[in-house]
Amino acid sequence: MLIWRAAAAIAITATVTLALMGGAYAACSPAADNSPNPPPGTTITCSGVTTDQNGTNGYGTGNQTGIVINVDSGASVTGSVNSGINIGNATVSNSGSITGATNGVFSQNDVTVTNNTGATITGTVLSGIGSNNGSVTVVNSGTITGNANVGVFAFVNATVTNNAGATIAGDLGVNSGYSAVGNVTNAGNIIGTSYGFIAYGTGVVSNAAGGLISGGISGVQANQLLNVTNAGTITGTTSYGLEVTGNMDVTNAAAGTITGATAAIRANSGSISVTNFGTISSPTGFAASANANLTITNGVTGSITGGMVANLGFAHVTNHGTISGLNNIAIFAFTDVNVTNGVGGQITSLINNGIYASNGVATVVNSGTISAGGFGYAIRAETSAVVTNNAGAQISGGDTGVRASLGSVSVINYGSISGLAGNGIYAGTGGSAVFNAGTITGGTAAIQFAGSGNVLTLAPGSVISGNVLGGGSDTFQLGGSGAATFDVSTLGAAAQYRGFTTFNKVDDSVWTLTGTGSFSGDVNVGGGALIVNGNIASASNLVVNAGGTLGGNGIVGNTVINGGILSPGNSVGTINVQGSLVFTAAATYLVQVSSAASDLTNVTGAATLAGTVRVALASGTLRFNSPYTILTAGALNGSRFDSVATPTGISGSLTYSGGTVQLVLASGLGEIAGLNINQRAVATALDRAFNSFGSVPSAFGGIFAGNVPANLTQASGELAAGSQQTTFDAMNLFVNLLADPFTAGRDGTAPTAASFGKEGAADSYAGGRRRPGAERDAYAMIAKTPGAIDFGQRWSVWGAGYGGSQTTDGNAVQGSNTSTSRIAGTAVGADYRISPFTQVGFALAGGGTNFVVANGLGSGRSDLFQAGVFVRHTAGAAYVSGALAYGWQDITTNRTVTIAGSDQLRAQFNANAWAGRIEGGYRLITPWAGIGLTPYAAAQFATFELPGYAERAIVGANTFALAYAAKTATSPRSELGFRTDRSLALPGAILTLRSRFGWAHDYNIDRGIAATFQALPGASFVVGGASPARDAALTSATAEAKWLNGFSLAGTFEGEFSNVTTSYSGKGVVRYAW
User: Fold this and answer.
1) How far is CA 901 from CA 381, 644, 714, 1017, in A?
2) Could you list the residue range(s) of the whole structural domain that residue 902 is in?
3) What pTM value is reported for the model?
4) In 10 A of CB 1032, how many CB atoms?
5) pLDDT in tens, 678-697
6) For labelling alongside 359, which of 390, 675, 771, 859 has CA 20 to 30 A away?
7) pLDDT tens-digit profile of 714-749?
């Protein structure tokens, strides 16, 4: 072998060196001798021309160790008989020229050589750089040549870095020894007449972009393992680009090229793993050949030309680029082949097989193109083939697309599979399965099965050109997802699909049968729907199992609905049974109905009834209290259906007469369990109208669709009730503003010097306490003698802002929804004191309201005008006040109904309201800081005169628009409670703090209103809105300031609380008295 040749020569070199040592012209300093000298650690510099300084060697006697030799630029070291440099071990840096008749640089043991740019190292007979017993480390930027033998040789490990522009050449470019590691990093040129790089142990190669490794025989060879990363060019002229005896791992980058005449990549006894983004080719051989296994990943930019062979093992290939076998098989394995061909991937062979598993299973997932020309097979397995061909993918063979010569096939096809001269798909034994949602064509047959137990499933999108030859007892199926049509006349003994004895409908697809069939086997429907618009009466039996539906307007033979569904027609239609019909207890007879007709089943023989009749709406129109004929038969033999299931809100019953079954429907919205009061009121009104008319107008059909109780809630128009509570709240706020005994300035005259000193004045809201002496003395400083009430200030004017919000919870039993209202207004008024104890006045107000009913049931708003009068009288510590008010509103409501489309309904109307309040109380003085305590009682009413009005559609239709009846609603209430007050003297003013705590009782909390559907006269009902509680707690807090100049200012915050109502309101009053 080559390594023995090199080693022997080097040994000869060592002998000659020792024998011929003698004096010669020396330019390297210090000189070397046999001592050995120079000693370790010495640096030798060669700066001139050195020839045979040590006998036959340019420099060194072969026993110098641990030295450093620097050959300067322009210098040369020459051994005319033996080596240019001969040492035991050393570090050599060359910037000049080193030449030896045998070796350029020779070391008995390890040597490290740096050959700089422009420098040369030449060994004429043996090696440019060599080691007899050690390792070699080389960094080359110049030229290293072993003319007749090795550029760089290591008896043990070789570590070579060959930089860009550098060259290593020889019969062998780089050679590493037995059981060692040869590690080559190349960006330049490594050229071997025989081998570019040979490793007798393990080879590691990193060939950068622009790098070239070439050999006249092979580019790279390793005896044990080989690991290659390539972005340049590796080529073997007559044999292999890469060769290994053991296993090989290759990464070939996008710019990388690996070529070989016999094979680009070869593993003589091991396996190959390749990740390729570049080019791997062998125009006359194989791109990759392994005696064991192949694992190939070919990227989008990858190109593999010449085919790939796993002679005794498996081939696992993932391809996104191009794999071409040229005249060879593109992918071959002795055992199993597992191929994933991605989108855009191409696997081709010009005259042979595309993919071939000679003794194993071919498993292929294809999203690209797999083709074989000539008389080849695109995919071939001698045992079994498992193929998934995705949408848009192609598999084509000059002979056959997919072939399992001695085994079965399992094919799922969404793309295209074709065999030009033979079959699209061929199976050599039984138990095969083909699922097709794509295209399958064949010259001899599209699909050819052998044996028994084969299954063909067609899915929507299936196109089969050519015959399908079953084994004689195979199963034909319609399945997949979606919808498609099949001509049943193509299934039979002499038809396109032949050799099948069972016909199944599977999966969730809907298949429509046309034509007249001759198929005589069993038909089973187990999934989706089989719509028979043709004639399959030739079938021996048709069985519809659970999960399957039989429909259509065609003809069937003996039929059993065994837990499945019979649904005649295509929507409303008729199916004919030429034979007998049997329903099992778990069967469903699905009958679609409209106002004009219903589904019908005509049975020429006897019908055995059982199971459930389920009614479905074919359209929005229905016929009530008028029978539909749903089945006729030669005889019923006393059988009956077990039950009738109707859509929510519809009731149904069956009648039997002879061989006829009739269905009678009625509106039963009011029979729905769990309806609330509002829903049931609407339902009852609609039932009454629908059943009276005998039909459902098409526009109202949507009431029976979807969530029927929710539809009834939308139809109820509860929004109309919201205006009642909002009006009561608005009137109550205004009348309380008028009648409030705390309103600024109404509890007595404006403060004067005299009034500060009064004792027990009857006009100061109510009788007071007797003041202590110190306080009387203070007041005496203002007016020594208390005078009469200052009755000169008879007039006062005032302005107020008031408003609030109220939320009333809905009631689940009533079916009302939470209502929220908001009110805001501004009032102005005038008061006149007709006596020291009696005060009268009036007020005008303007404002607005809005209200919302929760859950999307609508909203409303109004513009508001109010007017009122009041009177107040005191008698000692007692008082009585009263008020009467009138209100006028311009109200607009809007709601959206989505039962049938989206209808926006609006109503606009004017309404009047009245309110009144009377209150009386008695003020007591408590011993606690002079706090006044006034128990009081009040009676109040609010009346809302709601006119009749109607909604109109401003978007959509008037179908669910309501007309509301006129209504006068009165809400009386009583109040019991107490008020407190405490006055504080401020400079020039009096600050009074007040509060109220009370209990209110409402006597009428009904918020219902009568309504009628405008498009359905007579369909009237009463809908109830959110109602307040009968009892509520009242609270308020007031701060009032009065000044001597006649101005007063007060602010009040009020609340009303119950288990269903939360209300907050406030008012601010400013008054001037004179």
Assistant:
1) 60, 30, 13, 22
2) 716-1073
3) 0.75
4) 22
5) 999 999 999 999 999 888 88
6) 390
7) 999 999 999 999 999 999 999 999 988 656 455 543
